[in-house]
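Sequence in, structure out. Go.
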Amino acid sequence: MDTNFHTHTTRCNHAYGKEREYVERAIESGLKILGFSDHTPYIFPKGYYSNFRMRPNEIDSYVDTVLDLKREYARDIEIRLGLEVEYYPAYFDRLLDFLEPYPIEYMLLGQHFVGNEIGMHYCGAETKDPEILKQYCRQSIEGLKTGKFFYFAHPDLIYFTGDEKLYRSEMRKMCEEIKELDIPIEVNLLGIAGKRNYPKESFWQIAGKVGNRVVIGADAHDPARVYQEKEIRAAELLIKAYGLKYEPDYGKKGIGADEAGCVKDQRRYA
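Output:
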């Protein structure tokens, strides 16, 4: 593992450390590419704010900080500017309009809620409701079909403890559609470190049989988590166990418009 495109900052209200510390840890660990992908601001109706993401008025400081580090450490490591984004149909176009002036290089799909978040189910909370499972799968595919996402972060985040046969059926359909779209899915190291409900073995067994492309993402919320040997080894064992199509070079050759439709012209930021 010498790239990590899944890194957060304190702006999301649940991460720690300075951006420079994440960069220094990445360099010490031998990473070639470090991508910052903090939780995107979202333009919700007036009066609503989700407390696990940066506010819209923080995007300028986020962009400026990452671009400053990109220039400062250009001889030591490639730094990429990204965001982790949910696909909320009611607000997604407004978000893209809001982000238009900024040189965002890529977006990761991280579907933390179904629906449009407000008053809806958090996907990391346990549920046995078949409709929530189905909606998670449908909405994730709809988001990926926009062509705006670099890869699908923690695709097995949905914490479904109902009918396992239904889970396997829905996840197989989702994995097959993702394969058709030719978008990688992420083995998430934070899930491994925190012993969360993901990575879920049965999901990755399905992904292996379907033949999905796979990447590893640190999902780092503190500098020490940018690179952790123990979790990386566990991810590699999972990849090997299920014959997953691991692509460690994904993104190394640059993030072009064919890979992430949100790429901006960065000349004015040079």
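Check: The helical segments are 19-28, 59-72, 92-99, 130-144, 164-181, 189-193, 201-210, 229-241. The longest strand covers residues 78-85.
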